[in-house]
Specification:
By secondary structure, the chain is of the alpha/beta class. The protein has helices at residues 17-22, 37-50, 92-109, 161-168, 200-213, 222-238, 241-248, 250-253, 259-269, 282-292, 312-315, 350-357, 371-382, 393-401, 403-425, 430-454, 470-478, 515-518; strands spanning 64-66, 70-71, 77-80, 130-132, 137-139, 153-154, 157-158, 192-194, 273-277, 303-306, 321-325, 330-331, 343-347, 364-368, 385-389, 481-483, 497-498. The protein is globular.
Length: 521
């Protein structure tokens, strides 16, 4: 089928539209007859007429998505984090953290009583944002460390793009000011922090409400608010307040069905060994596992490791294991020289785990929700295969499957090559320049409407207007697989091979199979 950008040959007044929509690369047609201004404009009108009938192959929200090829037949050991991986929390758990932090700020930091009345809007923000801990701004940054201007918020108010450029000297964030390997600031004077895990949704809500509350108070320092919120969140976890409230009302916070147990039974029947590595305490995970798996949950796991101190668990090879006495509720003092099946251990390190079990790094697949705490070190340093749990995928995939989204993306994909050709061949034509400005305005409108479909303030978790987000850049680097829920693995056999999609590089021609091979694209 003739491609839209084959301007190497003389073309008629109406070129092939479908090829136009499928072409994304830059072109060089300097040695061939240039298309006329009228021909390019006619293709635009044809694009507008045809875009409604173009179809696409949909993805399913329960799919497992692939960054790096992985053959499950090679996997002998499955590892799991507990929070947000084996345990599936609902939004009530975010409310616990939010309320605990507000209480701490009022009681211990002398914040005004009025902040108790501030209600969190869980649909306002999303994880994966960056927090400017000096100014208290929330924003989305792309994989090239550029701020997406239309996402910078001070409280609930959008910061004007010209103000963003003034504050940051442009939109690029210097490497020294960005999050380090673990998501915290690397610079001497802290600036940005990446809010990457699911617990950070509470922090987004707290920052949004408190910065908005104090926004017009000239005596208020946003960096102090951000610091106080961080201290309060740390205390909510370390003091046991969060754990005790969840244990007391387990059915209010955890989703319970039989799917996770079914997955564990299938893996066990296939001869796979399993391990839990969690930073949570044994009483906490024991209560949860009994609730959504059953009282016999420990029989599925070769080893259970609690209070693991991730990410240090993956890098500090000197920390010893302590066996946990589940009856006495305390660690034993004897030196651990073997890891007994179905026993519980505290602390330890990944090197020791592999040595004492005889497991190989390349035969292990570990699932978690925190890219820095769970996945980064195992993936980069140990060669352990990794999977990330991203519940937001359900919403994102449903939006991207919608007819409205597909039409917008197809129109954007067809419009940009027309803009390239217009400026390439008619840069000195005044009419062409007017047309080009109109198309640029239309492109900007399409981009904003696409952003609004996911989240009115911040858009998609995975994309800025054109590039991957910083979040997706880390996701692609630290995880071989990603999916919305651990139980989605039930849709695949234990010897399934996950193949990544081969995408054309910017300098490569796109080669596609005819539509009748797999149906319309």
């Amino acid at each position: 089928m003739a491609a839209f950008l084959k301007c190497a040959r003389p073309v008629g007044p109406r070129l092939n539209l479908l090829g136009a929509v499928r072409s994304f690369g830059q072109i060089n047609c300097s040695s061939y007859p240039a298309p006329s201004l009228q021909e390019i404009r006619e293709e635009y009108f044809a694009l507008r007429k045809r875009i409604a009938v173009l179809s696409t192959r949909q993805k399913m929200p329960a799919d497992v998505f692939v960054n790096n090829e992985l053959n499950l037949a090679d996997i002998k050991v499955y590892g799991f984090d507990y929070d947000f991986t084996l345990a599936r929390y609902n939004k009530n758990v975010q409310q616990i953290i939010y309320d605990s932090c507000i209480e701490c700020l009022v009681r211990e930091k002398q914040y005004p009583e009025e902040i108790r009345k501030l209600k969190p809007d869980w649909d306002f923000g999303l994880r994966g944002l960056h927090l400017d801990i000096t100014n208290g701004f929330l924003m989305k940054i792309d994989c090239f460390r550029y701020i997406q201007e239309v996402t910078v918020h001070c409280g609930r108010q959008l910061v004007p793009p010209d103000k963003v450029k003034e504050i940051y000297g442009g939109c690029h964030v210097a490497h020294k000011d960005m999050s380090n390997f673990y998501g915290n600031s690397r610079s001497v004077r802290p600036h940005f922090r990446h809010l990457n895990d699911l617990f950070s949704l509470s922090e987004v809500a707290l920052v949004t409400n408190l910065i908005e509350y104090f926004r017009n108070d000239k005596y208020c320092d946003p960096s102090c608010i951000v610091s106080d919120i961080g201290d309060a969140i740390h205390k909510a976890h370390s003091s046991g307040v969060f754990h005790s409230k969840v244990i007391a009302n387990i059915d209010r916070f955890l989703t319970s069905d039989n799917s996770v147990r079914q997955l564990l039974e299938r893996l066990q029947a296939a001869g796979k060994e399993m391990v839990i590595i969690t930073n949570s305490s044994f009483p906490f995970i024991d209560t949860g596992m009994r609730y959504f798996i059953g009282d016999d949950w420990q029989k599925f796991f070769r080893v259970v490791i609690v209070d693991a101190r991730k990410p240090q668990f993956h890098t500090q090879g000197w920390k010893p294991f302590r066996e946990w006495d589940v009856v006495a509720g305390s660690p034993l003092w004897e030196k651990v020289e073997t890891l007994k099946p179905c026993h519980v251990y505290q602390e330890g390190n990944m090197q020791g785990l592999l040595k004492l079990t005889g497991w190989k790094e390349s035969e292990m697949l570990y699932f978690g929700d925190d890219m820095y705490g769970d996945l980064a070190d195992p993936s980069l340093h140990a060669g352990i295969r990794t999977g990330c749990i991203v519940p937001e995928l359900e919403h994102e995939v449903k939006v991207s499957n919608s007819d409205n989204f597909v039409r917008h993306v197809k129109l954007l994909a067809g419009l940009q090559p027309l803009m390239e050709r217009m400026q390439m061949h008619h840069s000195d034509n005044e009419v062409a320049q007017v047309c080009l400005r109109e198309w640029e305005a239309e492109r900007d409108q399409i981009r904003e409407e696409l952003k609004f479909m996911f989240n009115p303030q911040f858009g998609s978790l995975f994309r800025t207007h054109q590039n991957h987000t910083y979040f997706f850049n880390r996701l692609g680097r630290f995880s071989d697989l990603y999916t919305s829920d651990l139980s989605n693995l039930l849709h695949y056999t234990t010897d399934h091979v996950f193949y990544p999609r081969r995408a054309a590089l910017p300098h490569e021609a796109q080669h596609r199979l005819p539509p009748d091979v797999f149906g319309p694209f």
